[in-house]
């Protein structure tokens, strides 16, 4: 263990040494594994960057990894990160290993960090009618195992729809397709109830029980092992699902290519079953 901090909201633990990248745990769950976090963050961010991308909004993402990926594109003028816990961002700014892993994203002058409840902040942005984003990225843990259910509700997605530009894209981490299909497809039906058309896809971790990123309670050899895939949804306003691809000027990626995304979409679609009801603030539909 390198760092252990109890913030006002959660326990934050950073492990690792000089010979290996750090691992970040929030309340005992592996949030970032330095050895292969790129698989999760590349899959989350890059499909949404295929188009206009001057203004990017990241909900969550206090570790700086999603911002790192967005900043790799020319034409990105601003990245706004809305994070609830200042302690996570403070560590991501100041710890040498974690700051190196996120590419010193929080030192980039294009990045603005807002410490706020994302639901309340986004509702305020809608009321101001001044902020519109080309890309919105929801970098949050699986709603089935965290208290962030309201950020996966129809009402929240309705707010996102109002701050997107007409051609904007919305990328959502929706939990494991294979291990928690009910949760994943509930996110899909909730997005569509809010007026989005969606394109499901997934990404595999390096090895079963070792995959890095949100919702990993432990690594190989621990109890349970955690799911070995992540499910994502790329969404746009309207009735026509978005194309799933990479921008022509996308940077060189370690885990994604056009064929990879096509296979990822087919893999996710194989799990589609009967459509579950959408989740709302009054009737949340996510289970454990």
UniProtKB/TrEMBL annotation:
<comment type="subunit">
    <text>Homodimer or homotetramer.</text>
</comment>
<dbReference type="GO" id="GO:0004766">
    <property type="term" value="F:spermidine synthase activity"/>
</dbReference>
<feature type="compositionally biased region" description="Basic and acidic residues">
    <location>
        <begin position="264"/>
        <end position="273"/>
    </location>
</feature>
<dbReference type="Pfam" id="PF01564">
    <property type="entry name" value="Spermine_synth"/>
</dbReference>
<keyword id="KW-0620">Polyamine biosynthesis</keyword>
<feature type="domain" description="PABS">
    <location>
        <begin position="1"/>
        <end position="222"/>
    </location>
</feature>
<feature type="region of interest" description="Disordered">
    <location>
        <begin position="264"/>
        <end position="288"/>
    </location>
</feature>
<dbReference type="InterPro" id="IPR030374">
    <property type="entry name" value="PABS"/>
</dbReference>
<comment type="function">
    <text>Catalyzes the irreversible transfer of a propylamine group from the amino donor S-adenosylmethioninamine (decarboxy-AdoMet) to putrescine (1,4-diaminobutane) to yield spermidine.</text>
</comment>
<protein>
    <recommendedName>
        <fullName>Polyamine aminopropyltransferase</fullName>
        <ecNumber>2.5.1.16</ecNumber>
    </recommendedName>
</protein>
<feature type="binding site">
    <location>
        <position position="10"/>
    </location>
    <ligand>
        <name>S-methyl-5'-thioadenosine</name>
    </ligand>
</feature>
<feature type="binding site">
    <location>
        <begin position="117"/>
        <end position="118"/>
    </location>
    <ligand>
        <name>S-methyl-5'-thioadenosine</name>
    </ligand>
</feature>
<feature type="binding site">
    <location>
        <position position="147"/>
    </location>
    <ligand>
        <name>S-methyl-5'-thioadenosine</name>
    </ligand>
</feature>
<feature type="binding site">
    <location>
        <position position="83"/>
    </location>
    <ligand>
        <name>S-methyl-5'-thioadenosine</name>
    </ligand>
</feature>
<dbReference type="GO" id="GO:0008295">
    <property type="term" value="P:spermidine biosynthetic process"/>
</dbReference>
<feature type="active site" description="Proton acceptor">
    <location>
        <position position="139"/>
    </location>
</feature>
<dbReference type="InterPro" id="IPR030373">
    <property type="entry name" value="PABS_CS"/>
</dbReference>
<dbReference type="InterPro" id="IPR001045">
    <property type="entry name" value="Spermi_synthase"/>
</dbReference>
<keyword id="KW-0745">Spermidine biosynthesis</keyword>
<feature type="binding site">
    <location>
        <position position="41"/>
    </location>
    <ligand>
        <name>spermidine</name>
    </ligand>
</feature>
<comment type="similarity">
    <text>Belongs to the spermidine/spermine synthase family.</text>
</comment>
<dbReference type="GO" id="GO:0010487">
    <property type="term" value="F:thermospermine synthase activity"/>
</dbReference>
<comment type="pathway">
    <text>Amine and polyamine biosynthesis; spermidine biosynthesis; spermidine from putrescine: step 1/1.</text>
</comment>
<dbReference type="InterPro" id="IPR029063">
    <property type="entry name" value="SAM-dependent_MTases_sf"/>
</dbReference>
<keyword id="KW-0808">Transferase</keyword>
<feature type="binding site">
    <location>
        <position position="63"/>
    </location>
    <ligand>
        <name>spermidine</name>
    </ligand>
</feature>
